[in-house]
Amino acid sequence: MKTSYVFLFSLLLHTGEYLSQIRSQTTLESDSISEMVSFWHGIPEATVSAVGLASGASGLDEVPGSLHLITMKELDRFSYTDPLRTLRTVSGVNITEEDGFGLRPNIGLRGSGTERSSRISIMEDGILIAPAPYTASAAYYFPSIARMSSIEILKGSSQIAFGPQTAAGAINLISSTIPESSRATFNMMMGSFGSKNIHTTVGGSKETPKGTFGYLVEYLQLGSDGFKILDNGASTGFDKSDRLIKLRYSTPTSAKTFQSITLKVSDVEEVSNETYLGLSADDFILSPFRRYSASAEDVMTSHQTQVVVSHKIEPSKSLEFNTDFYRTTFARNWYKLDRVIDSTGTVVKLGSILDSPDVYSTPFSYLSGSSTPDGAGLDVKANNRSYFAQGIQHRGIFKFGSPSETTTHRIIYGIRLHRDGVDRFQWRDRYSMNDGQMQLVTPGVHGTAGNKEEFATALASYLRGTFHFGDVTFTPGIRHERIHFESFDYGSSDLERLGEADYRSNEVSVLLPGLGINYNVSSLFDVFTGIHRGFIPPGSNPETSPELSMNFELGMRFSHRYSSAQLVLFSNNYSNLLGADLTASGGIGSGELYNGGSAIAQGLEFELSIDPFMDGPFDHLSMPIRVAYTYTDASFSNTFSSELDAWGDVEMGDAFPYLAPHQLSIVTSLEIGDVSADISGRYTSSMRTEAGQGDVDQTSATDASFILDSGFSYQASDNIKLSLGLTNVLNGTFVVARRPYGSRPTMPRALRFTLISEF
Known about the structure:
Layout: H1 2-22, H2 32-40, H3 45-48, E1 66-70, H4 72-78, H5 83-87, E2 93-96, E3 106-109, E4 121-124, E5 127-128, E6 148-155, E7 169-175, E8 183-191, E9 195-208, E10 211-224, E11 229-230, E12 238-250, E13 258-272, H6 281-286, E14 290-291, E15 299-316, E16 319-341, E17 347-348, H7 350-355, H8 361-367, E18 377-401, E19 408-425, E20 427-434, E21 437-442, E22 451-469, E23 472-489, E24 502-520, E25 525-536, E26 547-559, E27 563-574, E28 578-580, E29 593-595, E30 599-610, E31 625-636, E32 640-641, E33 649-650, E34 662-672, E35 675-684, E36 705-715, E37 720-727, E38 735-737, E39 744-745, E40 750-758
Parallel strand pairs: 4-7, 11-14
Antiparallel strand pairs: 1-6, 2-3, 4-5, 6-7, 8-9, 8-40, 9-10, 10-12, 12-13, 13-15, 15-16, 16-17, 16-18, 18-19, 18-20, 19-22, 20-21, 22-23, 23-24, 24-25, 25-26, 26-27, 27-30, 28-29, 30-31, 31-34, 32-33, 34-35, 35-36, 36-37, 37-40, 38-39
């Protein structure tokens, strides 16, 4: 495998050198970084200086690691509301589908693991957005992609600036920006399965002698009746609404010192009739979109709020300071089937029933609607939790050296004081099944199925430099995380929380160094490499150690007027892999972290972008073609026993579960005047659902899948655009997951019509 990597890298290196030689006489309007950014991402070079993840970088050579930007144009191309469909076109991104709508996505980077996106840092406008990023990082809340203006995905040694999860990468979602002039937009979408989307914004800026005042008001309503069919005919859909206000003031242009202050207030509500209960293998073959009667009461209600006050000041051209005060809250109750009780009072796990329905034929019959006898029943658990996260973060940028933009050195520092927590107050209600209808028998006592508070207080800081020496750019850095975890478990006997809780705490202090190097071989070709220490916090259990890793990457970028490419080889070496007990991954949902053994995830990322019509007789046409391929090989490098069902008894060499070795996406568009047609194809190889090695048993694996999407748009006028989209054109039906319980399908073919207006 390593020999193959070296061969591929050498091949592209020599190809790049050859191309740079034959084009050495070509005059470019900008350097290779500018060409790469403007062509690949469709944005001007100046935009890169503003992206949150670049931390003030002026080009890709100053970003220590692999940066990918999904621009507004790319987001509009297919108008996805599912973040998983949006991110599938980016190399190095690992995804596990669950509900078909992407309401609670499972995202990983470079083989990190995808469970509830808990092993990567997720931000909105540079602010940590997971409900409790340190205490409970599982992303049961994820921002709506439909209201984002761009997305930044960073992998590699760029992690120095972002945490607390620094093992694999970070994703920053950029919300709608305040327009420079008065502007209003109204977008409406209607589609299959009763899907609907209303998105409207009103905003503008006004310059006065006392400064510039700007505002943005945004409303988004998403919903669907659902594509699954409950045995009793009830809805399997969802409704979600986002409301956001931004206010900004900046000093007048005549001021000696530029300053701005921005207030952002957002509010999100969701009701989704979602379940963790899948299907048995036989039932999936017969009716893949069926939902059993026992999931009829499953519903999640949630409410998220965020308040951010941001201040920026530029005392001089060489100094810039940014400070954010933030607080987020998230309350949710996922009321869903938890277990079956047979007539003897024995608890039977849902996963065991669906994996072996012949063995557990009687409990299985209860799931599909057979009446329960006395003593038997269905327990529905109220996973009632509330989260908060608050803090202050500050970043400073000092520029020095040559005034030339490409050779200005930078020192960037950041510090964040953060506190977050989760309050679990849960219970189980006992239901009976009577001829396919669930009836409440015994309401549960609140707090008896989980009565615990957990908190984390963290002080994080980093220092990173950017130094140019001719064609070489060095980006060394170091990050420090100091975290204090606390847990107060009151148990089922102290529901009023009046007594002394079962207390435990854990203290963590860790230094995380890193270094990135970029070499500008020619005006067309760059080589970069990076190494950094990765980290995942261990939680409040003092017997659990933090996860540490050493992460390497070696890559190159090539760019020309009509083509660009990037190849990256990566290797992440974990010395102490952490696994989380999440219901989403088949556990009991305690959130406990468990130490695993050592592991290694390595692979290759390749991206190619080309427009064959940029020059020549057909230059009035545009047909950009983008290809992204990822190969990932992740396996355990020692033998150990784990309490996590997905790991179990691990042997050295066992492959990670829920990680596709091969992923390939091809996206192309044909633009002719006011008309454009877009096609996106994505192939994902089969994934193991349990750790193992050797030949894959398809009963313990997902299906290999190929999904084709298409879109057509027409610019009817300067203010009106019409589009028609079709997802899963071939109407393929695939098992995309077998967790938490049973087989789960991808969404079938769906049609949508969108009206986009701007005034």
